[in-house]
Amino acid sequence: MLRRRLMLATVITVILSGCGGAEEIAAPEPPAASAAAPTTADPPAAEPTAEPPAAEPTTAEPSDDETTDDETVAGAPAPEPPAGAVETDEVQAVDFAFTPVDIVVPAGTTVTFTNEDSARHTVTAGTPTAPEPDVFDLELPGAGSSVTFTFDEPGTYAYFCEPHPFMRGTVTVTG
């Protein structure tokens, strides 16, 4: 028993000394001279050396049918609908997925979202990383529940389910 304890202590010591080895091999200390004031070759960082040049635009102005990074998905000008988008005004939450995923409707259409699952779902504008609940945030509390939303403005509206952020869809509203 004593022999096992000594052997275990030796193994632990070897392992710990190996783990600490990376910390012991550190970068050498900078020379004491570098702690002094900067030399003439190193200008002080706090003093600007010159006025920065005026920024040049790197891209052309967007046309009426393009979006910029500053525009949100909801209400953006209507691009082409995603491939496979369905022309319908009804979406179901079935088996933890919105069906159909992508729909196309004309402006002014009221879309009905129906929950066919027993779980609670939401239909929240935006994406899980950039939600836009001020655009729309609809509640589907349980099986058989339905809510509607009228899409008046052309654009592409991404939406997702807050409790199940893998559930996503889009509504493309045409002019």
What coarse outline follows from CA principal-axis ratios? globular
Percentage of helical residues? Answer: 10-25%
Mean pLDDT: 73
How does the helix and strand content classify structurally?
alpha/beta
- Tell me which oligomeric state these chains represent: single chain
Spatial strand sequence of the major β-sheet:
1-4-10-9-6-7
Rg is: 30 Å
**Could you tell me how far the N terminus lies from the C terminus, measured between alpha carbons in angstroms?**
84 Å
Q: So how many helices?
A: 1
Low-confidence stretches: 19-72
Strand residue percentage: 25-35%
SSE ordering = HEEEEEEEEEE
Strands, count: 10
Report on the biggest sheet: 6 strands, mixed
Q: Can you describe this structure in just a few lines?
A:
This protein is of the alpha/beta class and 175 residues long. It has one helix at residues 2-24; strands at residues 86-87, 90-94, 97-99, 102-106, 109-115, 121-125, 137-140, 146-151, 155-160, 168-174.
Model description:
With 175 residues, the chain is of the alpha/beta class. It has a domain at 71-98 and 116-142. The chain is 13% helix and 29% strand. It is built from one helix and ten strands. The protein has one helix spanning 2-24; strands spanning 86-87, 90-94, 97-99, 102-106, 109-115, 121-125, 137-140, 146-151, 155-160, 168-174. The strands form two sheets. The protein has a six-stranded mixed beta sheet with strand order 1-4-10-9-6-7, with no helix packed on it. The chain has a four-stranded mixed beta sheet with strand order 3-2-5-8, with no helix packed on it. The longest helix is centred in the first third of the chain and has 23 residues, at 2-24. The protein is globular.
